[in-house]
């Protein structure tokens, strides 16, 4: 099952705000985009807005078919 496509839109930020998000993203080993999404989810959660858990892409190797030798 693949993740549903994400909505893309332009976002204008103050350069100082972007730099702060960039630093936080690096500290959390995330992209700036993933960091913004995480911060928005946290902020909405604090306001009591319930969101479904995001569909995460599967990572790693696919399982070997049954009966296949190593």
Features:
single chain, 70 residues, mainly alpha, 2 helices, elongated, Arc_rbn_hlx_hlx
Radius of gyration: 17 Å
Q: How many extended strands?
A: 0
What is the strand content? under 5%
Secondary-structure element order, N to C: HH
Distance between the termini: 26 Å
Main sheet makeup: none
Shape: elongated
Return residue spans where pLDDT drops below 50 for at least 5 consecutive residues. none
Give the helix tally: 2
Name the helicity range: 40-55%
Global mean pLDDT:
88
**Structural class given helices, strands, pairing?**
mainly alpha
GO biological process, one term: regulation of DNA-templated transcription
Protein name: Toxin-antitoxin system HicB family antitoxin
Organism: Sphingomonas gei
Region (Disordered): 51-70
Protein model, in words:
The chain is built from two helices and no strands. The protein is an all-alpha fold. The chain has a domain at 15-46. Helix 1 (15-27) packs across helix 2. The longest helix is centred in the middle third of the chain and has 15 residues, at 32-46.
What's a quick, concise take on this entry?
With 70 residues, this protein is mostly helical. Helix content is 40%, strand content 0%.
């Amino acid at each position: 099952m693949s993740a549903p496509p994400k909505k893309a839109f332009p976002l204008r930020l103050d350069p100082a705000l972007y730099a702060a998000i960039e630093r936080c993203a690096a500290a959390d080993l995330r992209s700036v985009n993933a960091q913004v999404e995480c911060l928005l989810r946290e902020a909405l959660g604090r306001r009591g807005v319930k969101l479904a858990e995001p569909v995460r892409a599967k990572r790693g190797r696919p399982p070997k078919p049954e009966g296949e030798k190593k």
